[in-house]
Amino acid sequence: MNDVLTKLLGIWPEIALGTGACFCLLLGLWPSAAVRRLTVVVAAVALLAAGVLTVGQMTDWFSRFSANEFANALNVTTFIKLAVVVVGLLLLGVVASVPDAIPQIASADRVSGKRFEPGDVYRGEFFAFFLVSLAGVMLTAGAGDLVWLFLALELTSLPTYVMVATSRSNLAAREAAVKYFFLGAMAAAIFLYGFALIYGATGLTDFPGIAAYVKAEGLSPLMLTGVVLAVVGIAFKIAAVPMHFYAADVYQGAATPVSAFLAFVPKTAGFVALITLLNLVRIDATGNLPQALLWLLWIIAALTMTVGNTLGLMQTSVKRVLAYSSIAHSGYMMVGLIVGIGGPSARLGNGIAALLFYLVAYGLATLAAFAVLGCIRVNKREADSFDDLAGLSRRQPVLAAIMLISILSLIGLPPMVGFLGKIYLFGSALAAGGLHQPEMLWLVIIAVVNSAISAVYYLRIIGACYFASADSPQTGMEIPHAPARIAAAGIAAFAAIAIGIVGGPLV
C-alpha cells in the first residue's frame, strides 16, 4: 500500500489532467451550448493546474534530494511534464475551434433544452481525449516498470485515433483514422511482445530490477531480441523508419490543428520511452550499448532522416511536406538518443539534454506552421497545396511572417531556436565521438547533408507565401475568426526567436 500511495503522490499533475478530462466529459453533455463551450476553459485550467503541481514537485524534490539527484529528475521527468504543459497550452489554442468547424456540432449548438440531443455533440469528448493523451505523455516520463510504460504509451495514442476520426466530417479523416488505428495496433503488438521477451529473459518488470539484472548477468540473446522488437514498435510513435508509412496520410487526412497535435505529442512519448528503455540495457559502467543495438539505432536514424527528406521533395501538399519533415526530424533526434544512451564514450547529459531541448524547439516551430495552415481557408476548405498559400504575405502579412519564422527554425537557420537545437544536437555527437569514432562523424555528416536537402522543400513554402506571381493568389482565400489559434501561432513563433537568441547561455 505504501508503494501505491507513493506512486499516486508522484502523479498529481496527471491526476489534474484526468480530473479535467472528466469535467470536460460532463460539461460536453450539458443542454446549454454556452456551458458546453466552457470545455476548452476547463482544459486550460487543468493544464495550468498540472503545471503548478509539477513546479510544486520540483520544490519538494529540491528540499529532499541532493543537487545531483534533483538535476537528474529535472532533466527528464520534470522537463517533459513542464514541456507538455507549455506546448499543451499552445496546442489547446490551436485546436480550440476544431469542434466549431464540424457541421454536426455546429448544428447541435444552435438548439438547447428538450430539443438538444447529446448524441449529436462530442465537444466534451474531444477535449477530454486531448487531456488524456497529454497525461499519457507525463505518465510515460514517470514510468517505473514495463506494464506502466505500455499503458502510458497506449494512453497517449488511443485518444489520438478518435481525435483524427472526429476532427473533420469527411471520409478522408475517417480513412486516416482507420489506417492510423490498425498500424498503431500492429506497432503496439510488436513492442508489447518485446516487453514480454524482456520479462521472459529477466523475470522482472520493474526498471531498477531489470537494470541490476543486466549489469550482473549481461544481455542474453532473448533480452536483446526483446529490446530490438520494443525499439521497432516504439518507432511507430516517433514516425521513424520502418514504421513511418502512416504519417503522411494521417497528417493530411486529419484536421490541420490535430495534425499539429500528432506532430508533437506521440513523438515526445515515443522518445521518452526509448530513453527509458535503452537506459536499462547499458552493459558497462561507461554506458555502452551492445554493438548490434547501436548499429540498429544508427541505421534507423540515417534512414529516417534520409527517407523523410527525400520523400518530402516529391510532395505537392504542404501537410504531407510537414509530415515528412516530422519523420526527418525524428532521425535528427535519434542522433542525440544514440549519443546520450549508448555511444562510445557516451555523455548522457549532453546527448539526452540535446534531444529534449530539440523536442521543444521542433514542437514550437511545427506548431506554428500547422497553426498558420489551419487559419487559412480556400474555397471553403482547409489550405493544403502550395498554391493555396500563394500571395499570403500580401493578404495576411502577420500569418506569413509567422510561417516564415517557423520554417526558418525547422531549417535550422540563426537566430531561430532550431539552429541552436541542431548545434546542440550535432555538437553533442561530435563531442562524444569526434574524429575517433567514424560512425558518429558519418552520422553527423548525414544529418547535416539532410538538413541542407530539407531546405529545398521548406523554401518552397516560403516562396509560395512571399514570391508567388501576381495572378497566383487564390480568389477564394479567407481567414476564419480563430483568435486563439493565431495567438498560439504568434506565441510559438516569438518563443522560437527568443529562445534562439537568449537560449545559448541557458543551454
Walkthrough of the structure:
The chain has helices spanning 2-9, 12-27, 33-36, 39-64, 67-95, 103-109, 123-141, 146-166, 171-202, 207-217, 221-238, 247-253, 256-278, 291-312, 318-341, 348-374, 392-395, 397-411, 417-432, 438-466, 483-506; strands at 377-378, 381-382, 477-478. By secondary structure, it is an all-alpha fold. It has a three-stranded antiparallel β-sheet, with no helix packed on it. The protein is globular. Mean pLDDT is 87; it is low at 343-349.
Average pLDDT works out at: 87
User: How can the largest sheet be summarized?
Assistant: 3 strands, antiparallel
Number of helices: 21
Sheet/helix structural class: mainly alpha
Secondary-structure element pattern, one letter each: HHHHHHHHHHHHHHHHEEHHHHEH
Task: Name the strands of the widest sheet in spatial order.
Answer: 2-1-3
Question: How far apart lie the N and C ends?
Answer: 40 Å
Parts with pLDDT < 50 across at least 5 consecutive residues: 343-349
**Count of DSSP E strands?**
3
Beta-strand residue percentage? under 5%
- The portion of residues assigned to helices is over 70%
